[in-house]
Amino acid sequence: LRNRKQRTAAGLTIVEGKREITRALEAGVIFKELYICRDLLGDAKASEVSAMTKAPVYETTRLVFAKISYGERDDGILAVCAPQQLSFRDLGSPTNPLFVIVESVEKPGNLGAILRTCDGAGVDGVIICDEQTDLYNPNVVRASLGTVFSVKVVVSTNEKTLEFLKSKNVMICATLPRARAVYTNEKLTGAIAVVVGSEQDGLTDFWAQQADLKVKIPMKGYADSLNVSASTAILLYEIVRQRSIS
User: Fold this and answer.
1) pLDDT confidence tier of residue 4, bands split at 50, 70 and 90
2) Neighbour tally for 233: CB within 10 Å
3) CB 140, CB 108: distance < 8 Å
4) Pairwise CA distance, residues 197 & 199, whole Å
5) Residue 38 has pLDDT above 80, yes or no
6) Contact of 36 with 13, CB cutoff 8 Å
7) d(CA 160, CA 242)
8) Tens digit of pLDDT for each residue in 61-83?
């Protein structure tokens, strides 16, 4: 399950860490197996987490857990689970919705960081187009601090996503370094979808052509753009700020 092909075939993924596993449980994710090391986790927490799931619980030694865990994690808890696969229907019809469209983002750490920001900003849904890293990559789960389970995320195509946004009368705001409008000068208080692109190439022409609004973040140095997760955070919290005073 460290391999994407195997995760896809099995419909399963690995979740590690107390915080991440607790958030997955709270979101109703179905657990298949739970592995704990009491020496690392502690008896009280081990009993608490074990009681939250009906999945088989296996206890391991420190040595065994060091082999099955990833990197330097020493929380002493690891789960195999079957995460939810959401559709556009699951996004519902929120009043004055705020969506984030993530196109072709390749790095699991960036996708996880975007989801963590979306959770904090109260985004109504995230739609991943042209998926380059799978949503439930263990590194996405880790970088999101488990918020991959608390945020509504749909994986789809550009075309179907555009159809969904049009059906909801959502304004499409594309982030482009070559845009003329600075994001702080635009009204961002209505129903809106912020579209961000890949680390290397940014947005494709599809979203640049379909956008109702194109904005940029001013760059004063040599670089022409910020990290995609940083850009997403800046734009989302400007929307949160504008909405709070509107």
Assistant:
1) very high
2) 19
3) yes
4) 7
5) yes
6) no
7) 29
8) 999 999 998 877 778 999 999 99
Element housing 51 (H / E): helix 43-51
Q: According to the 3-state scheme, what is the secondary structure of 116-185?
A: HHHHHHCCCEEEEECCCCCCCCHHHHHHCCCCCCCCCEEEECHHHHHHHHHHCCCEEEEECCCCCEEHHH
Task: Provide the pLDDT for residue 201.
Answer: 87
108 vs 102: CA distance, rounded Å = 12
Strand locations in 24-119, DSSP E?
Answer: 30-36, 57-59, 77-82, 98-103
pLDDT digit string (tens) for 123-166? 999 999 999 999 999 999 999 999 999 999 999 999 999 999 99
Q: Nearest 5°: phi and psi at 219? A: -120, 125
Helix (H) or strand (E) holding 9: helix 4-10
Do residues 166 and 174 lie in contact, with contact meaning Cβ atoms separated by under 8 Å?
Answer: no
Band the pLDDT of 200: cuts 50, 70, 90. confident
